[in-house]
Design brief:
By secondary structure, this protein is α+β, with helices and mostly antiparallel strands. Helix content is 36%, strand content 23%. The protein folds into three domains: 348 residues, no CATH class; 51 residues, no CATH class; 64 residues, Nucleic acid-binding proteins (OB fold (Dihydrolipoamide Acetyltransferase, E2P), Beta Barrel). The protein is globular. The chain starts with 12 loop residues before the first helix and ends with a strand.
């Protein structure tokens, strides 16, 4: 990882983040009503369903970022005599503690998501809940909603079951350590080595995930690899670097398990005839530009959107040029457009998720961090006991629209803080030239992302004719950390 010297100027990025939250319509501080309600929540027992299985003896573990304490999921895999694998994904039962229409629920419904700015986290739920009482933290007994899937060697999920259970996390593991180990770049993590049978368990999980991934790949799921920079903060609160998250075997493992669980949840609710939230990525309206990009590489894509053809093209590009694959991925991601929440009713066909190549998909695996997932959890729990749905279709439509809008606002806050952090690091490099990729072209301007260091900004001069996906040489004109502004001028023509 490249290091960038910290400029002598000092900025209160935590305060800038707080102000950005306010300007984007978020409530960054927990209101007194939520703080007061916490005392009751802490002492009240979980609100469980009539039947709760006890699965605490199973060797559950979690894999997440090293610093993460709001653990939403745990996993367990059991091999069967016929070669199939029984995959269990346990999701924190947040609803067991956070009642619908409570003060805590109202706050979560307002913001709809936790926001990670790199310099400060603004959790959707109070930390006393998300990092403790509703977190599947290590060595604690917790209630979870379990999705059990029978996975064949071909990756097909042959049957599923959903139920509530007591679970216990025996190993809080990190993407970084487990990923390096699974990929052959690092030693076995200490927790894995020291916990009996956990090494075998994680390798089973990896095997199951590979089966699931291979089937998704055959069905046309896109494998994209974008670079997202986050500021590295030292003990005094200063930015010392910009770090990027790297894909690895551990991230792939969890991604494939979570996609499978989300599909299973959507299918469960559909089978129950319940209106529910769906996560969709529409068929891309800028497909013609994707076709042009492929043509620049000597490849031909169909005139009409085709996820399988695009997936094959991306896999070939990754094999041919892994160094620049993240740049191509970023262009494709921008042209595909963001996902959104919709409502699926029993009488309506699902549009599906273009990027994942699945027809039925919801968000259900992060109820500590996303309100849509908490809503889905309540729908699932009601369906499990054949109770009336806790939300009407109209209420779900309102929630879906609000979650989609707030998700966009959250991205803007996080993007601004990445730019603010980058502006601090770049503030002593005015006049320097960089290679960048065009990430957006709109009435507001032409936006680019530097290849190294990873920083986003706007082209103030020479932006005419630039398109998403183009590479361009730019010169740094100015930085403004308080506003998250980084301004560039184009100094060379795009070469693709």
């Amino acid at each position: 990882m490249a290091k960038h010297h910290l400029h002598s100027r000092s900025f209160d990025l935590s305060q800038i983040a707080h102000q950005a939250m306010l300007e984007s319509g978020f409530s960054p501080d927990m209101p007194p009503s939520v703080i007061a309600e916490l005392a009751t929540i802490k002492t009240a027992p979980d609100r469980n369903l009539p039947s709760v299985r006890d699965l605490r003896s199973l060797l559950w573990s979690s894999i997440d970022d090293a610093k993460t304490r709001d653990l939403d999921q745990v996993e367990y895999v059991e091999p069967l005599p016929d070669g199939k694998l029984r995959v269990l994904v346990g999701i924190a039962d947040v609803d067991a503690r956070v009642a619908q229409d409570s003060a805590t629920d109202a706050q979560a419904k307002l913001n709809t998501t936790s926001i990670y700015t790199g310099v400060r986290t603004f959790p959707m739920l109070p930390e006393e809940l998300s990092t403790d009482l509703t977190s599947l933290r290590q060595d604690a007994d917790r209630t979870a909603i379990v999705t059990e899937m029978l996975v064949g060697t071909d990756g097909n999920v042959q049957q599923t079951e959903v139920y509530q259970a007591q679970v216990r996390n025996y190993g809080k593991l990190s993407y970084e350590a487990v990923g390096a180990w699974l990929d052959g770049h690092g030693e076995i993590p200490a927790t894995v080595a020291e916990t009996p049978k956990l090494e075998t368990q994680i390798r089973l999980q990896s095997e199951a995930a590979k089966h699931l991934r291979e089937l998704r790949r055959k069905n046309g799921a896109l494998e994209l690899e974008t670079i997202q920079a986050t500021p590295v903060i030292n003990h005094t609160g200063q930015i010392t670097d910009l770090a990027s998250v790297q894909r690895n075997g551990a991230r792939d493992l969890i991604e494939n398990f979570m996609i499978a669980a989300n599909v299973a949840m959507a299918e469960f609710l559909e089978a129950k005839g319940v209106a529910c939230l769906r996560r969709v990525v529409h068929t891309p309206k800028y497909w013609s530009r994707i076709v042009e990009i492929a043509r620049d590489f000597g490849e031909v894509l169909p005139a009409e959107p085709n996820s399988r053809a695009l997936a094959d093209f991306m896999l070939q590009r990754k094999a041919d040029d892994p160094l620049h694959f993240p740049d191509l991925s970023l262009s494709v991601v921008k042209l595909l457009g963001p996902g959104e929440y919709t409502v699926q009713t029993p009488d309506k066909l699902s549009e599906g998720h273009f990027g994942l190549a699945v027809n039925d998909y919801t968000h259900s695996t992060a109820p500590n961090r996303r309100y849509a997932d908490l809503v889905t959890q309540r729908l699932v729990k009601a369906a499990l006991i054949d109770a009336s749905a806790p939300y009407s279709a109209d209420e779900l439509r309102t929630i879906a629209a609000h979650c989609t809008e707030r998700e966009g606002a959250a991205r803007k806050v996080e993007r601004k803080m990445r730019k603010a952090a980058a502006a601090v690091l770049l503030s002593d490099r005015i006049g320097s030239e960089f290679t960048a990729i065009v990430t957006g072209v709109s009435e507001k301007g032409t936006f680019v992302r530097l290849i190294e260091p990873i920083a986003d900004g706007i082209v103030r001069r020479g932006q005419e004719g630039l398109r998403v996906g183009d590479k361009v040489r730019v010169q740094l004109l100015s930085t403004d950390p308080e506003r998250g502004f980084i301004d560039f001028a184009r100094v060379a023509k795009s070469h693709g």
